[in-house]
Amino acid sequence: MSPDAPLAGVKVVIDAGPTYEDIDPVRFLGNRSSGKMGFAIAEAAAAAGAAVTLIAGPVALATPTGIARRVDVRSALQMRAAVLEAVDAADIFIATAAVADWRVAGYSPRKIKKGPGGAPVLELIENPDILAEVAARDPRPFVVGFAAETDHVHEHAQAKLVRKKLDMLAANHVDERVGIGADDNELELIWPGGSETLPRAPKRELARALVARIAAHYHARTPA
Ligand code: C5P
Fold first, then answer.
1. What is the pTM assigned to this prediction?
2. How far is the centre of ligand 1, averaged over its atoms, from the C-alpha of 211 (Å)?
3. Per CATH, which fold does 11-221 belong to?
4. How far apart are CA 14 and CA 90, in angstroms?
């Protein structure tokens, strides 16, 4: 393994950004993910020599330098299909996307009109968990998840690592300063048997540190 290119010859699939769940042709349910962290990780992985497939939800971000393939999607179901199509050939899957937990049960092909009947009641159904689905595959890539938590970061992250059967999980504390949509971030990295804090830094810097850790753990599990 070259120290300059620790992911040379390694195929990495990364999902990033939010998903939008359409209600009707003009309305959707979304979230505040900017995609910046995922795009920074994609750039750092490419710089480390990886062949990167970046699956992006609706974001306003240019494709980073060195990305082999970018697939743009909108909804969680589209993201799932794109990930499952790409992940069979992947050595590492990094799920940074803020996939919407729910989608609207009945999409209305016509704009829902305001009327005397009052506000519509939206029925929501759960979206598939893309990360857990990839982790349940056999054979499977080295699987890295993300978790945005507002409290009890370590406990929730630890539970998620075990529940979703992940190789690594990067957890961040979401508040006004760091986390979703912000330029800086701090991460607690956990894996079965250990943890490490990557201190607050601009997302691109943090992404390089994270990719170095992922490469080291991936090679420790999968000797070349
Ligand atoms: O359970 P929670 O949504 O906090 O887990 C976050 C992790 O799971 C992230 O890595 C996210 O990309 C992934 N996830 C997913 N599909 C979902 C929900 C979350 O891949 N439907």
1. 0.95
2. 19
3. Rossmann fold (3.40.50)
4. 10
